[in-house]
Amino acid sequence: MGQNSAKLSSNDVKDLKTITYFDKNELQQWYRDFMRECPEGVLRKGEFRAIYQQFFPAGDSTKFAGFVFDVFDSNKRGSISFREFIVALSVTSRGTMDEKLDWAFSLYDLDGDGYISKAEMMTIVDAIYLMVGTVLDLPQDENTPEKRVAKIFKQMDLNRDGKLSKDEFREGSKCDPWIVQALSMELPGLKNSNRNNRSKFK
After folding, report:
1. Residue bearing the bigger pLDDT, 67 or 183
2. Distance CA 53, CA 89 (A)
3. Quick one: which H or E segment has residue 146?
4. Which of 5, 65, 125, 130 gives the lowest tally of CB atoms within 10 Å of its CB?
5. What are the E-state strand segments in the chain?
6. What is the pTM of this model?
7. Close Cβ partners of 46 (under 8 Å, ≥ 6 residues apart)
């Protein structure tokens, strides 16, 4: 992918159209915006965190943005290429529910062992609560990360083994959309930032 050009090649466009939900014009516009803000052709963790902070000014999104960055960074090189960025953005903004849930599972499964432990869930949920600050008016049984995690596991951990398989997570999350809403910045009670809007790069 030509990093010194402000335009994707026809081959790059053809490739990305087959693996994302964006059309040619959208891909070219996203690429121009990406390269304008990331002239080296990669997005680094500090820059990524700054983008998240724009959407959650009332809280501290540093931890959560860091976890999301690690999932975007699919080749684990410490930076996000345009391809990694646009593929992940396609899933989190326009993907099917199952695609979003698979992506979310990879976020919560911090050690990559195929299960989500209570400790892993606690780490992510705590990061979400830090991110949204005091904006959300949460019910009594969800007003702390500990209560939220306990509620999630009570609903989802069907075999009571203290961890969530991908199937348990998928089925449970379909009844509890809060689990994936943070990925699209659509948590209830927060003003919905247009997830398809390019303003995050402006």
Report:
1. 67
2. 17
3. helix 145-156
4. 5
5. 42-44, 79-81, 116-117, 163-164
6. 0.84
7. none
Place of tokens 């969530």: 164
Residue 107, judged by CB atoms within 10 A of its CB (0-12, 13-18, 19+), counts as: buried
Q: How much of the chain is helix, strand and coil, in % rounded to 5?
A: 60, 5, 35
pLDDT digit string (tens) for 56-84? 888 999 999 999 999 999 999 999 999 99
For tokens 């009332």, name the residue. Answer: 58
Distance of CA 133 to the CA centre of its chain: 18
Length of the chain: 202
The residues, ordered by sequence, that sit 6+ positions from 77 with a Cβ below 8 Å of its Cβ are none
As a whole number of angstroms, the distance between CA 139 and CA 157 comes to: 21
Going by DSSP bridges, is the β-strand pair 163-164/79-81 parallel, antiparallel, or unpaired?
unpaired
Q: For residue 189, which amino acid is it?
A: G
Mean pLDDT along residues 130-156: 86
Concatenated DSSP letters of 13-60: HHHHHHHSS--HHHHHHHHHHHHHH-TTSEEEHHHHHHHHHHH-TTS-
